[in-house]
Amino acid sequence: MPPARDKRPTAAATKRPAKTATKPPAKDVRWLSSDEEAAWRAIAQVMVKLPWALECQLQRDAGLSFIEYHVLARLSEDPEHTLRMSELAVLANSSLSRLSHLVKRLELRGLVRRQADPADGRFTNAIMTDAGYELLVATAPGHVERVRSLLMDGLSSAEVRQLHDASQRWLARLDASG
Questions:
Q1: Which of the listed CATH numbers 3.40.50.300, 3.40.366.10, 1.10.10.10, 3.30.420.360 matches domain 51-140?
Q2: Overall average pLDDT of the 63-90 stretch
Q3: Entry pTM
Q4: In terms of C-beta density within 10 A (0-12 exposed, 13-18 middle, 19 or more buried), how is residue 94 classed?
Q5: What share of the chain is helix, strand, coil (3-state, %, to 5)?
Q6: How many other C-beta atoms can be found within 10 angstroms of the C-beta atom of residue 51?
Q7: pLDDT averaged over the chain?
């Protein structure tokens, strides 16, 4: 279904130079079918509601944001509980600056520490502390139960595989889009 006609002011009225349109004309737009639109709206609602539902549980149980939990979980997966900040930024889909602020908050709580990479001093490593690991281990059961109750328990094994396959394809397309 095409969007309603937009009544934006002209470039002259907003004192901005006119731009050349790079979008295809409306007739060339591949509008979503009613089934596609319903699926998209459902996905969009999950994208809005799920982070908050997970964040509330993590805040209540551990005083962690979802992204802080994600960073700790990713650090825990490394045998040395250590990753370069630049690698962790990619995994967290974050800028290095934003990740640095996040890691600073975790450092202040004694959950992570930073040190120069001994293999290449140009890089900084984030290292999960014992206290960070203990908090993660204590928090994980509640987090897994929340994920299970909100998502997995409502799906059959076949639907879980389909969700995984679809998510992998979406991630590949997102990664390829820059």
A1: 1.10.10.10
A2: 96
A3: 0.79
A4: middle
A5: 65, 5, 30
A6: 13
A7: 89
